Amino acid sequence: MTRHSWRSLARSVVLIVAGTLVYAVGVDAFEIPVGIAAGGVTGLATVLAEVASWYGATLPVGLQTIVMNALLLLLAVRTGSRRYLANVAFGAVCCGVFTDLLAPYVPALGGGDLVICTLWGGVVTGVGLGLVFRAGGNTGGTDILAEFLARRTGMGVGTAVILLDGLIVAASAPVFSVEVALYAGAATYLSGKVIDAVVDGPRSQRAAYIISDQHDLIANKVMYDLDRGCTELQARGVWSGNDRPVLFVVLGRGETAALKRVVAECDPDAIVIISEVYEAFGEGFKQIDPR
Q: Which pTM does this prediction carry?
């Protein structure tokens, strides 16, 4: 392996370990103490641990997740690559070990308030999983089963994940309460949103489409006054049948007001459409990370 490959591997390992550690803190401090089973194998393990406690037995949540993921990996052995299987195994083991290892030392936070535990549990676990996914890792769980169901039934993977997590949240209702299950559903949704924010990064870029008869003047000002690249797209008006050039500009969040001002000065009647962009790479933006 090259030096760059070793650095990339080391970075991924550090992020996966840090992410699973953060996730374990979120689960142990906010979710498990109040019975929030926010989907996934951890949610199912939380439900089973509570049921076991009724009969005087102890089922560690982390150990359960490791066993469940080991069984689920059998479904992915034939279809998953070695790298994928290694990533899942490493992430799942770290996640399970940290969940049980930290449980005696992490205090239950939130004072039993379901709202606080839902909000902070969703945020902290989302940050942790986001770091894992950003490193190219995976913690397995319902994702593996969802992919298996998608191949067998034809349903989308996203739909399968929602279905499985929904069933786990529903299963927690008779064990804890319907109210707690509703909060678990909210925590699952919030965690997913935070994961997207961590993986995709803040949506700090904007894409602008400008339709104007003064397109040459506007393009010139965008390039030389705003110091941004500008691309002219060829379009045709359906009603008029006339060719109408469309300017395409990608710019930062803080430059949106400046673009509006430039367009207003050149052509107050111009049509401007501005949308959010997840990420932008290349000259003037961040470089593409090959990892």
A: 0.75
